[in-house]
Amino acid sequence: MELLSSGVALQTVPEKYIFPAHKRPAKELVDSSVALPVIDLRGGRLQGDGRDEIVREIVDAGKQFGFFQVVNHGVPEQLIEHMVGVSEELFNMPVEEKAKYYSDDPSIICRLGSSTPYDQNGIRYWRDYLKLVCYPVEEFMHLWPQKPDKFREVLAKYIVEVRELADKLLRLIAEGLGLEQDYFSGGFSGGQTQMNVNYYPPCPDPSLTLGLLPHCDRHLITLLVQGTAARGLQAKFEGKWIPVEPIRNAFVVNFGHQLEIITNGVLRSVEHRAVTNTSVARLSIASLIMPKTDCLIAPAKSLINEHNPPKYKSFTFEEFLSAYNAAAANREGVLEYFKIEE
């Protein structure tokens, strides 16, 4: 078992985590003057005069950034804090307890691991993770970690609230694009909801390594909580990386490849990555809203015409996952499989 959260504080970065000089984070420009939009959902009560404004803000953010943050979203703040708390407890458990959940087998529904499947030439990423399928709750709850003691109870409540928020956001997005409000329900968002709980321990030299590779998400939409005050998540904007500021109990929302393809490029799926820091461990909890594997993905018919022809051919989500893995999560590499030649 190989975990960074083993309880041993490393004084130097081991060779296998050191990236070639041209791939290190310091070699790319970071622009701290640009901030993602922060959208107030008014407690999740999305009716009345303010609804049109919220819809416009979400669609504008999707067109410009592919990312935004939401506050006053209706998910209880105490529940978010409990979810962050039990997740931190899990990574701080003794090694022998964590060993029960460790596996390198990607087919296992709930597993603890390290780095990513997309290691570059054997170079590892500075990240431990818990990956699990978490929705429908009754189908998968028995497979979740039994420790910490409250983990299953808290996660069961948390993911139901997050799913409800995701459904609200998808209805607002559909409305803003002139689609039927339930356009993204059914197969587009009806697959198994996955969760990545990411843990980035303090790194002796963050200039040498990365916590997570630059990538776009393979699914429909991601709702992510940043659990500490430490910066780490960065999104690509106009050729530079911009830090995604941690906002207490906010959700970072980003669009996956499927949403870009379904909207025929109107909304953007944007590269993002995680960098490390020397002082504190950073935790994030990403909930991944997935299509069903047999769902047919294609640009929405009402968004294409003779002046805006389809940019992508149709495919099943299962076919997309195969291409995504073959391209090692590279944005342009995976989209090349499905682009229609002009």
TrEMBL record:
<dbReference type="InterPro" id="IPR050295">
    <property type="entry name" value="Plant_2OG-oxidoreductases"/>
</dbReference>
<dbReference type="Pfam" id="PF14226">
    <property type="entry name" value="DIOX_N"/>
</dbReference>
<dbReference type="InterPro" id="IPR027443">
    <property type="entry name" value="IPNS-like_sf"/>
</dbReference>
<comment type="similarity">
    <text>Belongs to the iron/ascorbate-dependent oxidoreductase family.</text>
</comment>
<protein>
    <submittedName>
        <fullName>2'-deoxymugineic-acid 2'-dioxygenase-like</fullName>
    </submittedName>
</protein>
<dbReference type="GO" id="GO:0016491">
    <property type="term" value="F:oxidoreductase activity"/>
</dbReference>
<dbReference type="InterPro" id="IPR005123">
    <property type="entry name" value="Oxoglu/Fe-dep_dioxygenase_dom"/>
</dbReference>
<dbReference type="GO" id="GO:0046872">
    <property type="term" value="F:metal ion binding"/>
</dbReference>
<keyword id="KW-0479">Metal-binding</keyword>
<dbReference type="Pfam" id="PF03171">
    <property type="entry name" value="2OG-FeII_Oxy"/>
</dbReference>
<feature type="domain" description="Fe2OG dioxygenase">
    <location>
        <begin position="191"/>
        <end position="291"/>
    </location>
</feature>
<keyword id="KW-0560">Oxidoreductase</keyword>
<dbReference type="InterPro" id="IPR026992">
    <property type="entry name" value="DIOX_N"/>
</dbReference>
<keyword id="KW-0408">Iron</keyword>
<dbReference type="InterPro" id="IPR044861">
    <property type="entry name" value="IPNS-like_FE2OG_OXY"/>
</dbReference>
